[in-house]
Amino acid sequence: MGYDVYYKGYADGFDNHGWDGCDASLDYSTGSNVEKTSKVLGVYHRRRRRYECIKKTSTKIGWKSGGTGGNPCNTSEFGALRTPLGGNSDFGGRDENFPGAFAGYKCSRTTVNGALLKGWSGDPTMTGANAMDNNGTSKNLYDQLVFGIKTSDGESTGFCADAKNLSTMVNADGRTCYGMLQGAGDKALADSKTQLYCETTAGRTDEKCKCYNVTGSGFLEKCRANPTWAGCNEMMPKIVELEYLLKGSNLTVEQIGNADCIVPDICGGTVYVPNAGKPVCEIKMEVCNQIMNQKDVKAYGDLDSIQSCEFSGENSLDKLQERNDAARQEARDKRRDKREAEEAKKRKVITDADDARRSKKRDYTDSRKQRVRDALEAKRKKAAAAAAAAGGSTSPDSGSTSPDPGSTSPDPGSTSPDPGSTSSDSLEGVPTPYESPDVGGGLDKPGGMGQNAKIGVGVGVSVLLCLCLLIVFVMMSSGGRSRR
Predict the structure, then answer these.
(1) Is 417 exposed, middle or buried (0-12, 13-18, 19+ CB in 10 A)?
(2) How far is it, in rounded angstroms, from Cα 236 to Cα 257?
């Protein structure tokens, strides 16, 4: 992995002149002017342009604005490896990355380590020479090596961008890469890098990662499964002790609280802190752990050994037990309420269905009754219309207003119906409310026997049954006498 750095160069003077311009492959032009080159009788007659040229690797190009400061790449750190990116013209990236400079330069280094960076953190050249990042941030050579840089020419990843270097000291003031990332205001990057590192095999056993190992949901299960992880190696003895103390009660270690409640200040000191922050215990618990050591119990006779812990605080075991019981009761009540609500919903469905059936039946009955009433009314109107029509179209015999004596039928011209007729009130063909109009048969339905016929049939059946019983009785009596 290589590291590239960029810096602005400023010119101070020139190295040589050129009559035909500067050699573009070797030099930059710092200026030009027209000079007289021939003299006849004391008068210059020929003019020629002379250019001021400065070599791209000239020591007269420095990183300071006056052209001083030297060439940062001409040092043992970079082995004099310097790549000119352009000078004295609008070369690519000049305004974005090298504003106001005469030239732009790029230096490269194969490796970088914490010791080098720690030394460079106080070097005036490494902290002075600079270039502009694509996001408009000025970065000196040291910052570029630590954090990286992006330019129009390319980009370079910083030493501290590698998660495995987070705990490496890179500054003379003692800061590590982790501290440098946070100090640069890039907390999100620091958090993401530390999380990636702490989730590696090396990070799990790094003491700086212990806060990552013992925070978040399920930290107890993680520590039980990995007791040698940093932080977990402090937690497990306390967890075992608490499990022993809570044995026989309704409390569990999970109810004690977070890691800070089990091992106070476990995330103190120089550690990587997760994005969510350090766990802070908000539970105060009183634990009574008493052991009675009685060697000769028989010697006590009838004396009782009494052992008790009198806690009255909100975080006493009794109070915690009460809260646990209340929570369980609340859960039971919720389950009961849910069950009752579901049963009530089922009952309502059944009731609504029954109501719908009754309403449908009632509507059907009302409809049939209405049809009967409508049919009767229609028949009455029809009979009345027929009677009115008959009266208007016929007249009785002349001079007679009554039927012929002894006649059994009315005069053809009579306007009165047969005295026994009930045609106007007849329900023939009219369905009753509870019968279908097209169903015949049966004693109570059209086409069946009348009431008197039904009574006669009943009497006949009764008489026949009595005769049968009498015959049987006589036969039994006759048989008994013959045997004697």
Answers:
(1) middle
(2) 15
What range defines the domain where residue 236 resides? 3-10+72-262
Instruction: Kindly report the pTM of this predicted structure.
Output: 0.50
Q: Which DSSP string corresponds to 169-211? A: B-STTS-BHHHHHHHTT-HHHHHHHHHHHHTSHHHHT-GGGHH
Q: Are residues 124 and 190 in the same domain?
A: yes
- Judged by DSSP in three states, 28 sits in strand
242, 108: one domain: yes
Helix (H, G, I), strand (E, B) or coil at 338: helix
Predicted confidence (pLDDT) per residue in 92-139, tens digit: 677 888 888 888 888 888 888 999 999 999 989 899 999 999 988 899
Token couple for 150: 């992006």
CA dist list (Å): 380 to 73, 383, 427, 428, 430 = 125, 5, 10, 12, 12
Tell me if 64 sits within 8 A of 128, measured CB to CB: yes
Pair 332, 189 in one domain: no
CA triplet 473, 478, 479: central angle to 5 degrees?
A: 100
Q: In what helix (H) or strand (E) does residue 105 lie, and over which residues does it extend?
A: strand 103-109
pLDDT tens-digit readout, 385-403: 998 888 765 544 444 444 4
* CB < 8 Å & 24+ apart, contacts of 359-368: 365/433, 368/431, 368/433, 368/434
Q: Quick one: which H or E segment has residue 245?
A: helix 232-245
Measured from the Cβ of residue 331, the count of other Cβ atoms closer than 10 Å reads: 10
**Region of residue 241 (phi > 0: left; psi between -120 and 50: alpha; otherwise: beta):** alpha
Domain for residue 148, yes or no? yes
∠ CA(373), CA(377), CA(381), 5° rounding?
Answer: 170
The answer to whether 435 and 445 have CB atoms below 8 angstroms apart is: yes
